[in-house]
Design a protein that fits this description.
Layout: E1 2-7, H1 9-12, H2 20-35, E2 39-44, H3 47-57, H4 63-85, H5 97-105, E3 110-112, H6 121-131, E4 136-141, E5 146-147, E6 159-160, E7 162-164, H7 165-172, H8 187-195, E8 200-204, H9 207-215, E9 221-224
Parallel strand pairs: 1-2, 1-4, 2-3, 4-8, 7-9
Antiparallel strand pairs: 5-6, 8-9
The structure holds uridine-5'-monophosphate.
Uridine-5'-monophosphate is lined by residues 9, 45-47, 50, 67, 70-71, 74, 114-121, 124, 179-181.
């Protein structure tokens, strides 16, 4: 299967900082999927590094400048994952989808970060999945699925096991577009998932759920056209 993962920067690089074991466990999961014969792409987010830098820069700069800072953080996190993947990856972070596809065609795990301002790496992962005709997009993030309301501010929010892309558009449509924002799925990504009719799974970004999203029995939300 041809699978694109959006790996939240905050799961790869939690608030407490980088941990060798944590990065290694993600690298192992992606290597395992490659060994099983899957074609694997990983789009890495900017996490806390991006958010810390953006919150200071915002005092001086406009949103697209802050986005550019966020993009640099996504590429730095990408380099960290690439370092742990060793010979299974290429020591370069592509900045567009054509260069990304060349890496996949070299039979390597593709790792990339952001591309242009005004969206998050969710939108990058959805566009990459469309561009390479992937079979599955997996959004591995800091929540365990899509809820009917934002679970961070609604105690009675309910996790949805299965939704369609139109329902995803309704749920995510009102999320913020400002630099560093962190809704469960970026609204632009939802639009791309809908237009490209991409089968998508949103799971908690832990190695076990990343593996289960491809092999079955994950605990997240499945989104179908
Ligand atoms: N960002 C972009 N374009 C991209 C990827 C990221 O502008 O293609 C910026 C956004 O401000 C985003 C931040 O919130 O970098 C960190 O990425 P993410 O962790 O939110 O995906």
């Amino acid at each position: 299967m041809d699978v694109v993962f959006a790996l939240g920067g905050s799961v790869l690089m939690p608030k407490e900082g980088a941990s060798t074991e944590n990065i290694q466990n993600y690298a192992k999961a992606f290597k395992k999927l490659k060994e099983m014969g899957h074609r694997v792409s990983v789009v890495v987010g900017g996490g806390n590094t991006a958010r810390q830098y953006i919150s200071v820069a915002r005092e001086f700069a406009n949103e697209s400048f802050c986005d550019e800072i966020g993009i640099l953080a996504t590429r730095m996190n990408s380099m960290l994952l690439i370092s742990a993947l060793g010979k299974d990856a290429v020591k370069q972070v592509p900045e567009n989808f054509k260069d990304a596809e060349i890496i996949l065609n070299m039979d390597k795990i593709l790792v990339m970060g952001g591309t242009h301002p005004a969206h998050t790496t969710d939108a990058v992962s959805a566009t990459l999945a469309e561009f390479i005709d992937a079979d599955l997009l997996v959004i591995a993030t800091n929540v365990d699925g899509v809820y009917n309301k934002d679970p961070r501010c609604n105690e009675n929010a309910v996790k949805l096991d299965k939704i369609n892309t139109k329902e995803l558009l309704e749920i995510t449509g009102s999320s913020s577009m400002s630099a560093g924002s962190s809704g469960v799925v970026d609204p632009l990504a939802s639009k791309i998932i809908d237009r490209a009719k991409l089968k998508t799974i949103v799971v908690k970004g832990i190695p076990e759920e990343i593996l289960a999203s491809v092999t079955g029995n994950h605990n997240g939300t499945t989104i179908t056209p």
